[in-house]
Structures are given as C-alpha cells and as structure tokens.
Amino acid sequence: MLGLRKWGADAGLEMLKNGVFLRPLDRTMEYEADRLGVLIAARSGYDPYGLVAVLQMLEQSKGDASGISVFNTHPAPADRLAQLEGFMTANLDRYAAQPQVEARFRRALSSRR
Q1: Are 45 and 101 spatial neighbours (Cβ–Cβ below 8 Å)?
Q2: Which of 1, 13, 45, 92 has its CA 20 to 30 A from that of 113?
Q3: How much is the average pLDDT of 18-40?
C-alpha cells in the first residue's frame, strides 16, 4: 500500500512539474462534461438549464472580466451553449416528467444555517 501511495505522490508531483494542471483542457472534454452535467441533473430531478443560465451569465460578463482565468482555459460560453443546444433538445425530453427535487435541495440548504 505504501508503494502505491508513493507512486501516486510521485505521479502527482510529475504532473505539477510539467504544468498539467495549468494547461487548458481539450475542448472536447469540456463539452462532454457539459453534456454529462445536464444529463445527470435532469435524471436526478434538478433543472438541467441551470448550466445554460450560468453560461449565459458568463457570456454577458465576458467583456467585464477579461482577466478571469476561466476564459483562458475553457471554451467560450457561446461555443459551449451552441454545443449544448442540440444535445439538450434531443436528449432531455424523456426526463421532463421526472419529479423535481429543487424544494428538497432548498430545504437542505436552509437547515444548515
């Protein structure tokens, strides 16, 4: 077990040294993460259009926040929205009848205060 931990630590240090965590992700990976995120949200009873709202806000604020690193490491919000549009239209109708759990989520948040 100790050997596995040392290997993991060594691999992590090597990735840091080579700047793996500082490089932008492959755009296809980001688009896939967006698709999976909206699909998981829909299947779980959450509003999958939450990501769309966030991406729209990012697109609107892009001119005001050019120094924010997310704009340097991720595809443009408009591109991400365009990629999501067809996917959501084709894949989310089957989850429209899912029970929504937003109220449960809000109750859980308010009980932590």
Answers
A1: yes
A2: 45
A3: 79
71 lies in which domain range? 25-111
Task: Tell me, yes or no, whether 61 lies in a domain.
Answer: yes
Q: Is the pLDDT reported for residue 74 higher than 60?
A: yes
Whole-number Cα distances in Å, 60 to 24, 54, 55, 73:
22, 10, 9, 18
Q: Are the CB atoms for 51 and 38 separated by under 8 Å?
A: yes
Quote the number of domains for the chain. Answer: 1
CA–CA gap between residue 53 and residue 6 (Å, rounded): 43
Angle between helices 49-61 and 77-91 (to 10 degrees): 160
Residue 38 belongs to a domain: yes
